[in-house]
Design brief:
The chain is α/β, with parallel strands linked by helices and 496 residues long. Helix content is 48%, strand content 14%. The protein binds 2-acetamido-2-deoxy-beta-D-glucopyranose (2 copies). Keywords: Signal, Transferase.
């Protein structure tokens, strides 16, 4: 088999940047230093409508925020967006190309390094909740141009206070599905119906069928963060005191929920889908995949090129260390036993897992997920059902094996399996006291990768249909453009 590049991990960032630049639509992107930009503004005596964007400094949050800012900036050159990034994120994406009216401002890291973020998401959340507000305030004090609006990730629970104290309208960017939002938003209904507090052995199998627009689901499929009664204040604080609520959802997937919220909530709601991923996808299909890879590509791409069409299962449990070593071992042994080809991306225990995985599996520390999902060798995706991965899989039309672990992943898995019918469950949820066994994993992986079986053919068909429906959303004149236009107009109305 093709061998694994030892330096893969360290080259990850370089590749990430290279790909990001490669992606950029030539018409829209360009780099102009802030100073030049400000000078040109002074010369022209226009005062731009200034927007401050504050993403949560974590993977899965930054890209949707940049997507949103770029889309809005491209709608009107009167808008100037200042995106606040921590030093760490500046080092990752500081040189990425972006519209000339989007610029970056830097604040110190909340914690020393990314390693900490991956290993201890809860600790990182606490640091972001307590240590980031002050440097953002200081930055606000220094801004010369007055602000029309602040756009903040909903996970930045202090953003409402910051904007409120300065009397600036707040737009909150919701990083998960609209369905997860509406569950938090209708928390009172859960309480009234005896579905909170959650006790799985008592009410886990009861049906939640009273949340406007949301297809019925079991209590056990509610976001896992709701399991602990004492966490209620924490997730309720996520429901922001904002004027605008922005989703980064694919409208086709959650139109009923979004429509219900637009009618019933006090927010002005805009859904700005994953446009950059969509454009990137088209770019991948039209450019990269048509010609065979030359020299200088990463080893995993060469390996993928060597595999038969639709024969490889892509496996990713997300970027956090979230399951036990024992569970990782069972997965590795199960994949090996299945006899199927697979590409497993994991930040942890790569070397040890490689040994268990054997000949047919390639284990890498990083890969370009969207590219992999589009590669002709791919036959399926084993996913932890993070919202970002879920959207990428839908856009790529890839059938899924679901293995939800934390947060909002259980409701995403439920939607994938029961509503969209484009995947099967490996397990309903990861349970560290009751591991998914290697033999069970081998069995389901084998069945799933048998592309000719009628049940699997149905999954493929459904995934394709959904993909086509999503494509229509981004085609000219469809919902994405209308929503961006609407939000940009609202921003300009707030201009001072
Ligand atoms: C989604 O997550 C994958 C894997 O972590 C990453 O490669 C990709 O850049 C992310 N995409 C977005 C749009 O955040
Ligand atoms: C959950 O319900 C079970 C069965 O009724 C009970 O034994 C257990 O104490 C409950 N757990 C909590 C945390 O209330």
């Amino acid at each position: 088999m093709c061998s694994v590049g030892i330096a893969l991990e360290s080259r990850a960032i370089a590749l990430f940047l290279r790909l990001q630049s490669a992606v950029a639509d030539a018409e829209a992107w360009g780099l102009i230093a802030e100073v030049n930009y400000m000078d040109s503004i002074v010369n022209q005596k226009i005062s731009p409508c200034h927007v401050l964007a504050v993403p949560y400094p974590g993977r899965g949050h930054i890209n949707p925020m940049l997507d949103l800012c770029s889309a809005v900036a491209q709608k009107s050159t009167d808008i100037l967006v200042t995106v606040v990034l921590t030093e760490e994120w500046i080092s990752f994406i500081g040189s990425v190309s972006k519209p000339p009216n989007v610029r970056f401002a830097t604040i110190p890291n909340v914690l020393p390094s990314e390693l900490v973020r991956g290993a201890d998401p809860r600790g990182f959340w606490t640091a972001v909740s307590t240590k980031m507000e002050e440097p953002v305030e200081r930055l606000l004090d220094q801004l010369r141009l007055p602000l029309a609006i602040v756009i903040a990730d909903a996970f930045l629970i202090w953003a409402g206070d910051v904007a409120g104290r300065r009397n600036i309208p707040l737009a909150s960017l919701w990083p998960m599905s609209a369905s997860a939002f509406t569950v938090f938003y209708h928390f009172d209904l859960l309480v009234q119906n005896g579905h909170f507090p959650i006790n799985i052995s008592e009410n886990g199998d009861e049906i939640v069928d009273y949340i406007p627009g949301l297809p019925p689901l079991l209590v056990r499929d509610l976001p896992k963060v709701m399991r602990k009664q004492e966490d209620a204040p924490r997730f309720l604080r996520l429901v922001p005191r904002a004027k605008f609520l922005i989703f980064s959802s694919i409208y086709e997937l959650e139109s009923q929920v979004i429509n219900a919220l637009k009618q019933q909530s006090p927010y002005s709601i805009y859904n700005i889908g994953p446009a950059a991923s969509y454009h990137r996808l088209n770019h991948i299909y039209s450019n990269y995949l048509t010609s065979p890879h030359q020299e200088n590509v990463d080893d995993y791409l060469q390996w993928l090129d060597c595999q038969p069409p639709r024969s490889v299962l892509y496996v990713s449990l997300g970027s956090f260390l979230s399951v036990s070593a024992a569970q990782m071992d069972e997965i590795a042994a199960g994949l090996h036993e299945s006899g199927c080809r697979f590409l497993w991306v994991t930040r942890v225990e790569k070397t040890r897992l490689e040994k268990i995985c054997g000949e047919k599996g390639l284990v890498v520390g990083w890969c370009d997920q969207l590219y992999v999902l589009c590669h002709p060798s791919q036959g399926g995706f084993w996913t932890h059902c993070g919202w970002n991965s879920t959207k990428e899989a839908v856009l790529a039309g890839m059938p899924l094996l679901t293995f939800p672990i934390v947060m909002d992943q259980a409701p995403n898995a439920k939607a994938i399996v029961e509503d969209w019918k484009m995947g099967w469950r490996v397990t309903r949820e990861y349970d560290e006291d009751n591991l998914a066994s290697s033999s069970m994993i081998a069995e389901i992986v084998q069945r799933f990768m048998d592309l000719e079986s009628p049940e699997r053919k149905e999954l493929t068909r459904n995934a394709r249909q959904l993909q086509e429906a999503c494509e229509r959303e981004f085609a000219n004149g469809q919902s994405f453009h209308k929503e961006v236009e609407g939000f940009a107009t609202s921003i300009l109305e707030n201009r001072l």
